[in-house]
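Task 17 of the worksheet. Students: predict the tertiary structure of the chain below and write it out as structure tokens. Keep your answer in the requested format; marks are given for formatting as well as content.
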Amino acid sequence: MHKHRTQLLVDGFVFLEGPRWHQGHLWFSDMWAFKVYKMSATGVSSVVCEVPQRPSGLGFLPDGTLLVVSMADRKIMKLVNGKLVVHAELKQLAAGDVNDVVTDAKGRTYAGNFGYDLFAGAATALADLILVEPDGKARVVAGELDFPNGTVIKDGGKTLVVAETWAKRLSAFDIAADGSLSNRRVYATFGERMPDGICLDAAGGIWVSCFNSGEFIRVLEGGEITDLVELGDKRAVACQLGGDDGKTLFCLTYDGQLEDIHQQKAAGAVETVRVTVGSGGSP
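Model answer:
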């Protein structure tokens, strides 16, 4: 197993989510500062838009249009001429806050949700995975997921892998021509590690952010861990490969207590690791 250490790129954020590398920049949400940013590889950032109902997962349509999850009102927005407009209304399909998403090459977006009111302390419940077509029409394509979170599309668009945070596993599905999902199976399990955001590399390895253990791991199908990044007391929230050669792993971290998030304590950061296998697939 290869072990790595991160280097701090920039800090001063609250709680970061949804990183995507697009057009030479890292795009990400600061969930509890209610902003979406884009950042150069050297750490120079600017605000793209503000999302009052908390931004999370990001994606891009084939024409480059930015998609942004608006968590609390259970919508996916799109940025058109500098303004956010509704792309998909998911209140009738999502039982909890909409969270992470992945958008495929055809502009179809798969969206997870909490499944229950996490922030109100409600009892846990299983959730559905929702498919949003490029025109905004939505339908449920998988059910009974245990807090679906980070998601990738691999094998040339044939396979979807989603992190089930509370179940401590990655689950895989076959993707049909119309975007429907079938043949659910366990892709990898992690013992006590809880997977959050994930991203895919060109060799089919999946980088997994393990929120509770403060680690980023690279895992192969079946569960073999090839690489490990340890953060100590910090939380591993999400990750994305990018940079000029695709071999910089951008690691979104959180160095605080969970109760600090609502107070907007500046405990979120972007850290980096250089890896040997570059980005691949979606995201």
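Marker's comment: The chain is about 0% helix and 55% strand. The mean pLDDT is 96.
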